[in-house]
Amino acid sequence: MSHTTKDKKKLLSRIRRIKGQSEAIERALEGEGECEEILQLVASCRGALNGLMAELIEGHLRFHVLDPSQNTSPSQLEAADELMAVVKRYLN
Amino acid sequence: MSHTTKDKKKLLSRIRRIKGQSEAIERALEGEGECEEILQLVASCRGALNGLMAELIEGHLRFHVLDPSQNTSPSQLEAADELMAVVKRYLN
Amino acid sequence: MSHTTKDKKKLLSRIRRIKGQSEAIERALEGEGECEEILQLVASCRGALNGLMAELIEGHLRFHVLDPSQNTSPSQLEAADELMAVVKRYLN
Amino acid sequence: MSHTTKDKKKLLSRIRRIKGQSEAIERALEGEGECEEILQLVASCRGALNGLMAELIEGHLRFHVLDPSQNTSPSQLEAADELMAVVKRYLN
C-alpha cells in the first residue's frame, strides 16, 4: 500500500481546501475584487499547495526511498528528518 | 478600472485551469494513483498558480504602482520591465 | 544618484557577510565537516542572498520604477508597499 | 567516508565560484554599478548556490538516507531519482 493510500484522508482534506481556495479566487476575480485581496488569496493557495507538496515528498521519502519492509538504521531515519527540514525550508 | 477588471477574462481562464488541476489531483488521490504521478500534478498546479501570481503582480505594478493616468517616463517603464524579469525568475 | 549608491554602505555590509558565509562553507568542505552542518551553512547563505535581493528590488522599485523627482500619490506608495510584501513572501 | 568528502573537489569548485561571484557583487557595489547589472549578478549567484544545495541534498539522499553498504532495491533508487527531480524543480 502506498503512502498516498495510507494518508489518503489527510491528503484529500488538503486538496479540497486548495480547491476551495481556487474557487474563492475565481469568485473574487468575477466580483472584480481588489487586486491586493486577490494577491493575498493566491499567496495563501500557493502556501497550501506547498504544504501538500511537502507532505507528498515526505511520504515518498519514507515509503518509497526508504523501504518500510526493510531494516532502516536510526542514522538513516535521522538523515531523512534532516532532508525534510531542508525541503520544508525551501517549499514556502 | 482596475487591471483585475481589464484582464478579467485572461485571469479567469487561468484560475479555472488551476481549479481543474486541483480537481485532477483530488481524483488521483481518490483513485489511489501513483505517488510520482500525483507529485507531477501538484508541481504543474503550482506552476500554473505562479503564472497567475506573476500576471497579478505585473498588473499591480503597471496599474497601481505606476499610474496610467500620469506621465510615466521611458526609463520608468524600462525599470518596471526589469523588475518583472527578476520576479518571474523567482516565481517558479 | 542611484539607490545602490545611496544605500551603498548597507548593501556592502550585506554582501560582505555573504562573502564571509561562502568562505565558511569553503572551510567546512575543506575540513570535511558534517553534511548536515554544511547544508545549514548553505541555507543561511541563501537566506542572506535573498535578503540582499529583496533590498535591491525595493530600491529598484522606489527609485527607478517610481521616480522620486516626480509627484507620487499615496495610493502609488501603498501599492509599492503591497508589492514588496508579496516579493518578500516569495524570496525565502 | 561522507559524500562531502567523496565529492569534495567538485563541491569546492562550486563554492569557490560562488565566492568569486560574491566578490564581483561587492566590486559592482563599490564601483556604484548599475542596479540592473547588480540584480543580475545576485540572481546568478543565487542560481549557483541553489546548484550547490541540490548537489549536497543529492549526496545526503544517496549516502545518508540510503545506505550504500546495504542492499538498495531498484525501486528505491528510482524513488530517489524522482525525489531529486522534484527538489531540483523547486530549487531555482
TrEMBL record, chains A, B, C, D:
| Pfam family membership, one | Trns_repr_metal
Which residues are listed as membrane-spanning? Answer: none
- Where do the coiled-coil regions begin and end? none
**Family assignment from sequence similarity:** Belongs to the FrmR/RcnR family.
Key words, A-Z: DNA-binding
What does the record give under GO molecular function?
DNA binding; metal ion binding
User: GO biological process annotations for this chain's record?
Assistant: negative regulation of DNA-templated transcription
Specify the protein name.
Answer: DNA-binding FrmR family transcriptional regulator
Q: Which organism is it from?
A: Tunturiibacter empetritectus
Entry annotated with the keyword Metal-binding: no
Q: Which InterPro entries match?
A: Metal_Tscrpt_repr, Metal_Tscrpt_repr_sf
DNA-binding keyword on record: yes
